[in-house]
Every structure is written in C-alpha cells, then in structure tokens.
C-alpha cells in the first residue's frame, strides 16, 4: 500500500474550498503561460504594464473590498440577508402584483442557462427559439391590447409611457408642446414622464379626466395618456374622450393592465393609438421592482415609429418561414443623434416568462385568473360597504379605493399587523388590490383591519353568489384573443416542457459556445450568483412596501454602491437605471442639472467621438443636448486636433464629452487624460461610457483619471446575464459635485437625493431583484480576483489578436501593438477579393459550432471579438482554428476552386434537412456540416438556413409561428 501521509495537504488549506476566482477565470496556469508566450510577455502584470497607459494606471491598486468568499460562504451570507427581508401579502397595487410563476417556467426559463445566457438574437439563424418566444409575446400583447403591432418588450411601464409620449410627438402633426396626463396615472409613471419631458421642452399637463371630455384642458396638445384602469382602480370608458383627443389633433396613449384586458374591451377597440403597460403579473415575480417586461403596441401607421426591438417574419433560403429582428432594433447605430429612442436593449428573459405564462394558461386560464381577482375585489368592496366603509368607485377591476377620513394610518397599520401591506393614498384614503394569490383568509384580515367583525369564510361564498361584477357593461370584452394554436396546445407540463426544450435547442447560448461579441462582454454567469434571485424573500417584495420589509436586499444595494464606488473611484453610485441606455440618460441629466445649478444653462453641447456606441448620441439628444461629432484618426483614436478645434469653438456652451474607455475600437487611448483636461478647462464635464469596464477593474479608475460620471453595465462586467437581450442594469457613478443630481423617486425617499433629477425608471432601485448576482460576483472575487479577471480578459483578446493577425489583420492597436479586452478583425479586402461578405463569415461560424462576434460595428466589414476572461484555452483555440479554417475557405473562393455563388460560406448555415436531400454543390456534405470536427462534436444544427433580412423588415405584422410548426 502506498504511504501518502507525507503528501497530505494541511487542513487549513482545505477548509474553505476552491477560491471562486479559479472557477470564474477560464485559463488554467499552464494555459495562461502559453497564451502569454504567444502574446510575447512574461506575466499578466507585464501585460498590464505594457498595454495600459502609465498615466492612468494605478500600480499595486488594492481595492478596499472584503476578502473573497467562497461560493458556499457567499450563499450563506445572502441567505442571512434574505432572512432580513419580510415580504408581506402585498395588496398595494400600483402596477405590481403578487403572481404565481409556474414551476415549469421558473426552472426551465428563469433558472435555465440556455435562456438566461443567450445574447440579443442578432444571428437569427441560431436564435429561432428566442425569436419565436418573442413573437408569442408580441402576439399576446397585440391581441390583448387590440392594436396590430407590438414590440418585443420595453424596460418597464413608466419608461414605455415616456417612449409613447415622444413617439406621438414626432409622429403627430400638432405644433403644441403640451402633453396631457390623466391624474389617475400611476404616480411613478407621472414622475418619469416629467423627468423625460423637461429636457425636451414638453409641458406635462395633469388633468382630472374622471368626467371625460370635460376634464380636458383648453388649448392645443399633441397627445394624452389615459389610465385604464387607473391607479385608484377606477375603470372608465374612454372612447368618447379619445374621439375628442383625435378631433383636437392629438393622439391617445392608453396605459393598461393586460390581465384586465381579458375581461374588458381592448384599448384598440376604443380608439387608442398607442398602448403601454407591464406584463409583470404574467408570472414574473415583483422582485422589489424588477426586472419586468414592459410593453408597447401601436395602431397601423405607427409601426415605423415603434422604439425598441421588433421581431419580423421572413423566410430562409429554402422558403421556410423564419424570424429576425427588424431594422429599428439597430437604429441607434445607424441614425445616432437622429435616432428616435436610445433604447438598445429589452427585457427578453422576462418577456419569455410572460409569454410562456400565456401559452401555459391560454385565454381561458387567463380569463379565469382575471375573473377570480375581480371577484375577490368585488366581494371585498361589498363587505366593506355593508360594514359602513365608503368605497369611492363603483366600477373597477381588481383595486378598491376606500375613504376612511383620518383613519388611513390606523387601517394600514392594522393590516401590517396581520401581515398585509395596503396602499396609503393619503390620510383619508386606502387602496386595496387583489390578484391571483388573494385568499379568502386575506379578505377576512383586510375587513378586520378596517374595523369590521371577522366574517366566516362561508360568508364570502354567500357574497360571491349575490354580488354582481363591478365591470361596466359597456366595457365587457366580446372580442376574441390568443386564438393561435400555440396558446391552446401546451396545457400539460409535459407539453410545455418539451416546447421550451425545442425552442432552446434552436439557439446558441453560453451553455453551448463562447459568444465572442465585442462590446458585449459575454462572460460566465455563475450558478452561485444566479441562485438567490428566485428566493421568495427577494422575489416577493413589493417595490413600494415599507423599506424595513426589504432590509436585507437594501443591504445588498448599499454594499454594491460602496463596492462600485471603490472599483470606479467615484464618490456616489445610483443603481436605479435598469439598462445601459438609462444610465447614459441619467448621467447626462446629472451633468445638465449641474450646469443649470451653476447658472450656466446655456451649456448644451455634447461632444461624441465618431467611434462611440450609437446610444450615446441618442441619449444626449434625449437629455436636451446638441451633438457634435469628434473625428477619429486612422488608428481609431480621438483626433486631438479636431477635438481642440471644437472645444475652442464651444467654450461658452460646452456641456460634456462622452468617451468610451477603452475606446470602442478596443484600444487603451493614451490621450484620455488630455481629453479630460481640455474639456474641463472649457467648463465641460467628462462622461466615460463604462461598457468596457471589464478592461479596467484593478488597473485604473475612471473617477481618478479625470471622468466626472460613468454608467456601468452590470450585465457585462458584473455578470448579470444578458437573458437573450435583457435584463440589464446600468447604474451610474459620479464624483461628489454631481452626487446631488442622481436619480430619486417620489415613493421611496431613500432611493436618491432630494435634489435629484427625478426618477428615470419606474422602480426606486430599478431591477433590484437581480442585484444579488453582481453582489455575489464582487463578494466572491475580491480585489485580487477582479484584477486577475481584467488582466486575463486582456490576455485573451491579445492572444486571439496574435493568433489571427496573419489571417485577418487586427485593425487597431495601442502603444506596443496591444489591444485592450477586444480586437477588431478587418475582413474588408479579404472578403472583397473573394466576392463574399461579412455575413457569409458570420453564418459560416455556426457550421463550426460557434456564435459569431459583433459584425460591422464600429467599422463596417469587420468583426469585433471579445473573448472575456471566462473562456479557457481550448475554447479560444477552437474559435481561432475555426477562423483560420474559414480564411482557407475564403482563399479557395478567391482562387476559383469554389465558385463565388456555390461555396460553403455563401450557403451557410447548413441545416440537417438541407444535407439530407439532393446535393448538387461544389463542396461535399461533410465540408458543409463538419468542416473541422468529428461527427457530433460541438455541433450546432441551425433550424433554418440564411434568412432574408429585407423581407423581415417589410413584414412587421405580429403573427405567431405557423400551424406547420406544431404538426405532430
């Protein structure tokens, strides 16, 4: 027997398990050594010294973060914080309701990496599952709202309403700058509307529309927002009011509850031009405010004005129906400062949940859920009336507003003692909202809170039998909805499970391949980070519940704000923005407010480098700024002479410059401090887009090298998964002089400074329920782990650049020939010589089992590659070897060995069906399907062939998958 006692590892070394950083960072030490050898440096530290400009690099930076915890320790700490959260039975309403997420959807969508690690479906041939699920969402929304075209989700209801406001302004003919808002609108929506309206010169006029047409203000207005039902619960017929709005030259936006629309007439039937709202109560937990999928749908004629993402129906090369994102999905990159919206993301993962909730329940199930919630509210109201409590509205869906003069605090307190949160409207009014989780016992407890005697449960049945509905007859819905078979075929869990699996098998996510998308940072979303987000203690919190109910989650918020401040060098952080675009907007509002506070309101010029992300320019315009583009030189850097020229020309009106660092070209520009100095000397502020923060952590801090404000993409650098194109979180960090201008919220004073710019998202802390993901990432990585991740990401990009430079020239490098965390491969001349396109290369990668990098951004005809730190050497090499093999295929076309119109690139991707039929090509089947690998190894089988993009742009009508998709 072998004696191993002398090789025994000390207990102390084993006590805490493997450090998380070793699990998160892909390359093992020997692999990393090989990568560094190829790059030509001796260590990660040497790479950092050579790649990062000395002027911004903080040597031996030891971030003041807690010592790293293991996965088990982090989860234990989060469990302890969860125990400090106390969700009540939430009957507050205001757009957020308890809901039951079917376990089959929770486990197989929210908790399934095939869904949550996918990226935006920019490669539709390997995204058909997500696209079909989103088409279901669009059809669901269009059917229920009664208008023909819906997008594939918005960030939340309040921002959807704000986007609706700007849509009707640009689409309408009215010269007025006034926008009318129903006084019964959700208070958070009214506040977000005001935040959005001010920089655009829109005057928000709040009107009491309870009396219909008589409530409209005199004079012109370009549009109006009507609540249906209202925040108070009141349900009113707006048809005559909408007709009058149209007669006076305006357009009507209706904010509506989709569950209510299963019972009441659709907004489209009463004349709405635009319908907005939220799908949260379709199986998506409240999560202290998000993330949830808002929605927007429009009448015919407004399709091309619709912001956000829209799935179009097209065909593939064989004529089969296929889906793709329509053109406006990328309009920011094309139109920049002329874009109609800065939205660059959606809430795809949550939209999928909501759509599958409708698929699972179908129209009958949704109607039954809605009917039960309505009947609970009706019985509740009747007993209150009979007990002497005044019920303000006779017509309502699920919310009962009571008048209890001087007793509101007493009633709310008594309900809390019984474990129920009600809405305190004011000292005299209390609101009570019912939902699919409302029980008979809960109604009894509410009656007791109002001072009524405890009723027997049998009394509820007696009340239900004799009390009529509270829905006005004129609003009873008679039109059909959700008629497509997809909403009727998956009632059993077995059927839905297989449907979800079929869809996810049609996609490529991080569970199947690296996704080397430049500017997108598709890194590991560790299971230990993801696990807490579905814990009831976090998921079932109402965003407007008393703050003490969420003590544990607010500690997560506080910790994350502190840690992000330390990581970035800023003095304060707001976590409210629920997307990167929202962070941009919030940061620019802070800059504008700062100038106004100093009496320099004339400062409204925003300088933006030509290489910048398209949302930068769109956000600047939304913030009321004028955009001036600064040229970039042949190396991709800001052209300093041109910058000096425009700064000198705008010393009196310069507000800011927006800089992405490292640059969008993937380079550490060594002039960044000079850029900051020039702008500051002219009285402007410096905004650094934090999309590329993954190349800076532990090496340099924006708040220390000259920036004043940055947004940070937690869904990039800090591991919140992209979810197929959402959710995201885009908090902002600011230096001290801007901290008083961070976002705040009217319903949660703790959410921001009293002097803030107002809310820019519906919920006080934005997408609060997914913040534990980033908390866990920082907690488990610690200072050294984060620095190691950054340096490894930079090493991975330089390794790919070195390996591929001889085959595809790397377009931009910094001093010493190094890139940052991403590199741009120039395919323009190569593909031109062969008569091929960048699309051909991207589609061919699917045949190699890989997702394509970012195409044609920021330079047309190029691929931007970002490997991240979490891919190991084998996966990096798999990608490099595939690209090298594709280069050899391109050469065969260029040399004439394969015809330009018959080669594996122009016909890519290849489906199994296409290989099974007749074969009459200049290349064989094996070359088509298995160009580099043995059969079955890492094979991706796209379900469709090359999709006709132009047809998808033309066909924007929402329509579920064809019946043939369900045959058999």
How would you characterize the overall build of this protein?
The longest helix has 39 residues. The relative contact order is 0.15. The chain starts with 10 loop residues before the first helix and ends in a 14-residue tail after the last helix. Helix 5 runs antiparallel to helix 26 and helix 27 packs across helix 29. The N terminus and C terminus are likely disordered. It is globular. Helix content is 37%, strand content 11%. A seven-stranded mixed beta sheet has the order 2-8-7-6-5-3-4, with helices on both faces. A seven-stranded mixed beta sheet has the order 15-21-20-19-18-16-17, with helices on both faces. The chain has 968 residues and is of the alpha/beta class. It has 32 helices and 24 strands. Strand 18, helix 24 and strand 19 form a beta-alpha-beta unit. The protein folds into three domains: 354 residues, 3-Layer(aba) Sandwich (Aspartate Aminotransferase, domain 2), CATH 3.40.640.10; 199 residues, Type I PLP-dependent aspartate aminotransferase-like (Major domain) (Aspartate Aminotransferase, domain 2, 3-Layer(aba) Sandwich), CATH 3.40.640.10; 133 residues, Alpha-Beta Complex (Aspartate Aminotransferase, domain 1), CATH 3.90.1150.
């Amino acid at each position: 027997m072998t004696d191993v006692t002398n090789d025994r590892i000390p207990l102390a070394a084993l006590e805490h398990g493997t450090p998380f950083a070793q699990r998160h960072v892909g390359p093992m030490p020997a692999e990393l050594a090989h990568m560094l050898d190829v790059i030509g440096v001796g260590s990660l530290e040497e790479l950092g010294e050579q790649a990062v400009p000395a002027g911004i690099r903080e040597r031996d930076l030891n971030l003041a973060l807690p010592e790293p915890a293991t996965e088990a320790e982090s989860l234990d700490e989060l469990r302890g914080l969860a125990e400090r959260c106390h969700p009540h039975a939430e009957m507050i309403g205001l757009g957020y309701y308890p809901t039951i997420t079917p376990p089959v959807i929770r486990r197989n969508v929210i908790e399934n990496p095939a869904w949550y690690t996918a990226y935006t479906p920019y490669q539709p041939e390997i995204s058909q599952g997500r696209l079909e699920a989103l088409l279901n969402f669009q059809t669901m929304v269009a059917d229920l709202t009664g208008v023909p075209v819906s997008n594939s989700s918005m960030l939340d209801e309040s921002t959807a309403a704000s986007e609706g406001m700007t849509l009707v302004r640009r689409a309408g003919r009215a010269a007025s700058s006034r926008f009318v808002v129903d006084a019964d609108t959700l208070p958070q929506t009214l506040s977000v509307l005001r935040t959005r309206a001010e920089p655009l010169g829109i005057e928000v006029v709040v009107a009491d529309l309870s009396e219909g047409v008589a409530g409209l203000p005199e004079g012109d207005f370009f549009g109006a927002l009507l609540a249906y039902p209202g925040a108070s619960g009141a349900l009113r017929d707006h048809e005559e009011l909408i007709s009058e709005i149209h007669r006076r030259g305006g357009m009507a936006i209706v904010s509506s509850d989709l569950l209510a629309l299963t019972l009441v007439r659709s907004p489209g039937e009463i004349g709405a031009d635009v319908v907005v709202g939220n799908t949260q109560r379709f199986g998506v937990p409240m999560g202290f405010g998000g993330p949830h999928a808002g929605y927007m749908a429009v009448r015919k004629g407004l399709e091309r004005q619709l912001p956000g993402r829209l799935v179009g129906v097209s065909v593939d090369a064989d004529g089969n129906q296929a889906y793709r994102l329509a053109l406006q999905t990328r309009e920011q990159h094309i139109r920049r400062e002329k874009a109609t919206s800065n939205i660059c993301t959606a809430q795809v993962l949550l939209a999928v949940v909501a759509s599958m909730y409708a698929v699972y329940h179908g129209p009958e199930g949704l109607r039954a859920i809605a009917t039960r919630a309505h009947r609970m509210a009706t019985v509740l109201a009747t007993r209150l009336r009979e007990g002497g409590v005044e019920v303000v509205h006779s017509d309502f869906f699920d919310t009962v507003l009571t008048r209890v003069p001087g007793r509101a605090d007493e009633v709310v307190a008594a309900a809390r003692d019984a474990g129920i949160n009600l809405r305190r409207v004011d000292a005299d009014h209390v609101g009570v909202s019912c939902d699919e989780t409302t029980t008979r016992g809960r109604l009894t407890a509410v009656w007791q809170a109002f001072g009524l005697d405890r009723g027997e449960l049998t009394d509820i049945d007696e009340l239900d039998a004799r009390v009529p509905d509270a829905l006005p007859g004129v609003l009873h819905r008679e039109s059909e909805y959700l008629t497509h078979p997809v909403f009727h075929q998956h009632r059993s869990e077995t059927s839905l499970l297989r449907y979800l699996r079929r869809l996810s098998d049609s996609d490529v996510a991080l569970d199947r391949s690296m996704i080397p998308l430049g500017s997108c940072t598709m890194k590991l979303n560790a299971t230990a980070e993801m696990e807490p987000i579905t814990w009831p203690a976090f998921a079932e919190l109402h965003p407007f519940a008393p703050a003490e109910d969420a003590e544990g989650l607010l500690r997560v918020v506080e910790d994350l704000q502190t840690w992000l401040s330390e990581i970035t060098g800023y003095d304060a952080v707001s976590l409210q923005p629920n997307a990167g675009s929202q962070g941009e907007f919030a940061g620019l509002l802070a800059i504008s407010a700062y100038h106004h506070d100093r009496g320099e309101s004339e400062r409204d010029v925003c300088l933006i480098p030509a290489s910048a992300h398209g949302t930068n320019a769109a956000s600047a315009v939304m913030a009321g700024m004028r955009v001036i583009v600064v040229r970039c030189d042949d190396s991709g850097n800001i052209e300093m002479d041109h910058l000096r020229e425009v700064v000198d020309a705008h010393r009196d009106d310069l507000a800011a410059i927006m800089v992405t660092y490292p640059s969008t070209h993937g380079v550490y520009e060594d002039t960044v401090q000079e850029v900051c100095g020039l702008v500051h000397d002219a009285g402007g502020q410096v905004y650094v887009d934090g999309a590329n923060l993954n190349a800076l952590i532990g090496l340099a801090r924006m708040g220390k090298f000259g920036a004043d404000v940055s947004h940070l993409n937690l869904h990039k650098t800090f591991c919140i998964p992209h979810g197929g194109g959402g959710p995201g979180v885009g908090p902002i960090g600011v230096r001290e002089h801007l901290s008083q201008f961070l976002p705040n919220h009217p319903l949660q004073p703790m959410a921001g400074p009293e002097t803030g710019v107002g809310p820019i998202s519906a919920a006080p802390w934005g997408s609060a329920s997914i913040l534990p993901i980033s908390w866990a990432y920082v907690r488990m990585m610690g200072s050294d782990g984060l620095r190691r991740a950054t340096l490894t990401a930079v090493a991975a990009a330089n390794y790919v650049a070195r390996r591929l430079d001889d085959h595809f020239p790397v377009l931009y490098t910094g001093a010493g020939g190094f890139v940052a965390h991403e590199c741009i491969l120039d395919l323009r001349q190569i593909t031109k010589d062969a008569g091929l396109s960048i699309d051909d290369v991207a589609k061919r990668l699917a045949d190699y089992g890989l997702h394509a990098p970012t195409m044609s951004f920021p330079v047309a005809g190029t691929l931007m590659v970002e490997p991240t730190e979490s891919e190991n050497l084998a996966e990096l090499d798999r990608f490099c070897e595939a690209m090298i093999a594709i280069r050899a295929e391109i050469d065969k076309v260029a040399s004439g060995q394969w015809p330009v119109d018959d080669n594996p690139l122009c016909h890519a991707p290849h489906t199994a069906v296409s290989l099974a039929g007749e074969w009459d090509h200049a290349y064989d089947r094996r070359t088509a399907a298995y160009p580099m690998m043995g059969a079955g190894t890492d094979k991706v089988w796209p379900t469709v062939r090359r999709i006709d993009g132009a047809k998808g742009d033309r066909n924007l009508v929402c329509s579920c998958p064809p019946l043939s998709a369900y045959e058999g």
